[in-house]
Amino acid sequence: METSNVSITSYKNYICFMRKGLIISIVVNILCLPLAGIYLVRKIQFYNSLAPKPISIKNENIFWKIRSSEFRTFEVDSNSIVFIGDSHTQFFEVAEAFHNAHCKNRGIALDGTKSVLDRIDFIVDKHPKKIFIQVGINDLLNGASPNSVSEEIREVIKKTKAVSPNTAIYLQSVFPTNWNKYQAKTPVLSDIKSLNLKLKTLAFETKCEYIDLYNAFLKGSGLNSLYDCGDSLHLNGLGYLLWRDSLKRYVN
Amino acid sequence: METSNVSITSYKNYICFMRKGLIISIVVNILCLPLAGIYLVRKIQFYNSLAPKPISIKNENIFWKIRSSEFRTFEVDSNSIVFIGDSHTQFFEVAEAFHNAHCKNRGIALDGTKSVLDRIDFIVDKHPKKIFIQVGINDLLNGASPNSVSEEIREVIKKTKAVSPNTAIYLQSVFPTNWNKYQAKTPVLSDIKSLNLKLKTLAFETKCEYIDLYNAFLKGSGLNSLYDCGDSLHLNGLGYLLWRDSLKRYVN
């Protein structure tokens, strides 16, 4: 009986010890499970947010709203020389660069060809003298194919010619960059080269002027560091001077 | 003995059951603890990132780099009419609005008074004809006191007058907004009112022209929705037209 009593006591002690351990462990479970759950759900949401999206990017942020609204009130006229595009164009102080108040900036950071196509109407329906287009890098970075970008730019030209046949259209090549495509993480440069080739052909077919900026800004496999603001995508002051000088004879 | 054996067997079963429970619970802990830990550390980092920072904001993002670099190459001259400030100014197509190629945009989104003070040198050392200043809303949103903002703007004026005494200085009031201070989440409007009062006095003391835009854009306790691009801080096209009309007689 004594042995048995000893065993029972030691079992009881062991159970008491384990019970304490289990209680602590369950408390830790209760505390950690919801936090770990939240963490996992957020991670899944994050990776879902990176999943491929429709390739035609539509720019709808607050800056697009500000700029679009301003562009609808500040009107273009038949003397206007309009620069349409993305952040490269938006940051280009065109009236100042060409010392010409007829030069009007219609660039919006993050814009892609779809957005330009959507907003070309209220530029060209005022029959501007000239338009300078540079768009496509945001589409390519977002994974769009050079062919789809070039076809959307063809639509921009088609719309312009239909509404305002006397507007001179200048199609600028896309600048080189060392950036990668957002999702695929592969360099976008070969897509840029391919797009620019298509744009050159497109300009020839549609009787627009093609302006090769790519080779002026290229060094090695990307944007020449002389003209790089520091992110290997956007221009610095010297870059803007080179851009101005490359366009001067077409603007004036 | 039988009772005792039964007890021992049931204790053994109980222990076996508890052991399984404990193992499962510990496994769950091992899985969840690191995730919960990461979640908590990130939360703490997030709340730390919201903690009060030095009140003079210094704008150092990529857009600041692009714009600053461009501004250093595109030079101001003695005929220039320079608009210096934050996003409000940056998105204001001034050359177009006033149809005057001497109008130069020196606005940078997110800029505060400290940044304007840092970059006023390479504007005023070319002795521009006029400068229009509008800055301070980003400082106030960031928690700076109206007094500290107004004193920094006093330094901007002091620097300008010391380097270029013949430059006419136009001090514009800060626009109304319904936004709250980033950290305190309290409305910033009373700070704007207080800053504008100080700017009016400052303009009087320093013999600058004070331009009251606040009352032109106010409705109720914020930005008049007629001029609001949709975020109750930035202007829409009609807002830019009103701003242009409010400045016309000073620009020309």
UniProtKB/TrEMBL annotation, chains A, B:
Pfam families: Lipase_GDSL_2. Gene3D superfamilies: SGNH hydrolase. The chain crosses the membrane at residues 21-41. Keywords: Membrane, Transmembrane, Transmembrane helix. It comes from the Bacteria. GO terms for molecular function: phosphatidylcholine lysophospholipase activity. Residues 95-240 form the SGNH hydrolase-type esterase domain. This is Sialate O-acetylesterase. It comes from Mucilaginibacter rubeus.
